[in-house]
Write a structure and sequence with these properties.
20% of the residues lie in helices and 39% in strands.
Length: 185
């Protein structure tokens, strides 16, 4: 009887260990050459080739037809990792542009790179006092709310925001014009 219980315990431990290993395994993906969002949200399939079942996961609201949204590579890396995908942005990449379906020409994925340590006035995507869309991303959870910017920031910059619902101050990363993201990495 004791040997049966011992075998059952060992079998359960082996099965648990194999499930943990499978869950922590990450699928390597590559960024698409042209990124075009077709639905109400930009998904991991829009960004990556070979995203598999995780590709249906929504990352952010999609830009309107013919419009372009800008995303931080660090935001995209965190979203990919939360979905079990392995992607590391190339060195120097500071922004990824996504075009809304319906544009006359789809914008090729553009990788903006760092040219100076300070943000030029023309590169500011979020301005102090402006109401922005804040997306909080955590594994298995995505919340969207409105927040007020406490400072200026370009895409990829960290800014302080005040959540208009909870009145709490939050550090977030600017992902595009009037948009920022915060979350667990």
């Amino acid at each position: 009887m004791k040997s049966r219980l011992l075998r059952a315990a060992v079998l359960a431990a082996v099965l648990l260990a194999s499930n943990v290993t499978a869950a922590s395994a990450q699928t390597s993906v590559s960024l698409r050459n042209t990124i075009e969002a077709g639905g109400a949200a930009v998904t991991l399939d829009d960004f990556f080739e070979n995203a598999g079942p995780a590709g249906a996961r929504a990352v952010a609201p999609a830009p309107g037809a013919g419009r372009t949204a800008t995303f931080s590579p660090l935001f995209l890396q965190a979203a990919a990792r939360a979905a079990g995908l392995d992607w590391t942005p190339p060195a120097g990449m500071t922004a990824i542009l996504v075009t809304g379906r319906g544009a006359t020409v789809a914008t090729p994925a553009r990788f903006q790179s760092t040219s100076s340590p300070t943000t030029a006035r023309d590169d500011i995507a979020v301005r102090r006092g402006e109401t922005v869309t804040l997306v909080y991303v955590s594994p298995g959870l995505q919340l969207t709310t409105r927040a007020r910017a406490l400072g200026d920031g370009g895409v990829g910059d960290s800014v302080r925001l005040v959540n208009l619902t909870s009145n709490r101050t939050i550090d977030a990363v600017v992902t595009g014009a009037g948009a920022a993201t915060a979350g667990a990495n």
